[in-house]
């Protein structure tokens, strides 16, 4: 888990968001009749999430990096409803929702429903809330949109008089929503806070075809820094959705009724992960997703449990949101009489993968302060014994719940 220095500015708006590792292709170029409308929201989330993942890995190529594209995007898109002027344009471009305009809200509403209803055997929960300073006026339209489309209830807290109590209440909400996997999203109470927007997601799914526990055994995993570690490796022979080209192998590991799945991409070169991730984008992801075919084979996958946290300020600035962090920011649709800007965006994730399935969670906080098929091929073998990319997706929307890279499955 990587810790980064937090800003010293007081916080006005914090957004916490939580999720599971899910990535899927969104067929943007297909005709509308060939894809559900909700896929437009999924495309935007995947495009944003893959670019953010690449930005986060810059300078940290040997570290595990797990993010929740759905969580981060959903949190920022709630705040997007409060932006205006150049801030609205910059956020829309960064989030890839400019062409969707206000329709992003009903699309996200449909996306949340699609994810929730996709598979009754998979435990998936997404919750949102607004936490407002008592007496601080928030535009009714902003409150109504977050309530109507994101199900966010508004609660009054006393950030000024009891910052510790307000902070504790928000953290308890996040802890409960993630079933204890993300116990804290806001560590330092801020008496200047006026609004906190929280989004929490929890995922727990059992493999459609569990890995036999008796087949799990220690094996070498070649880490990104050139070393090797012994780690428990699971093994399963089955018919899988499979893709192979000159650069990598890829396998689809479904959960439950197969609406959700984890995709694992393994570079053929042990040192090839950085190059593969830097070139990964939504268009390639969609194209690759269309080329998976069922094929008999053997998968050897590490058993692991990882946590991750990072501050997202710099990556978001570099991706085009710099104005939202500046004194020129315009969040007048949150409060028309207050000058506001984003000061801090934090993200935390948890993922556990074992023989029975996957459990994952994520949390994000955004702080704002006041300012001015062919012939049957032979069986494949995919031994995932060096750094790899993974994603957990929902099938209809294609939305990435979680995406990331694992460079050392033994790290905690």
Structure description:
With 412 residues, the protein is α+β, with helices and mostly antiparallel strands. The protein folds into two domains: 13-206 and 305-370, Antithrombin, Chain I, domain 2; 213-303 and 377-406, Roll (Alpha-1-antitrypsin, domain 1), CATH 2.30.39. The protein has nine helices and 16 strands. The strands form two sheets. Strands 2, 6, 7, 8, 9, 10, 14, 15 and 16 form a nine-stranded mixed sheet that branches. The protein is globular. It starts with 12 loop residues before the first strand and ends in a 6-residue tail after the last strand. Mean pLDDT is 87; it is low at 1-33.
Please outline what is shown here.
With 412 residues, the protein is an alpha+beta fold.
Spell out the key features of this protein.
7-stranded mixed beta sheet, Alpha-1-antitrypsin, domain 1, disordered N terminus, 412 residues, Antithrombin, Chain I, domain 2, 9-stranded mixed beta sheet, alpha+beta, 16 strands, 2 domains, single chain
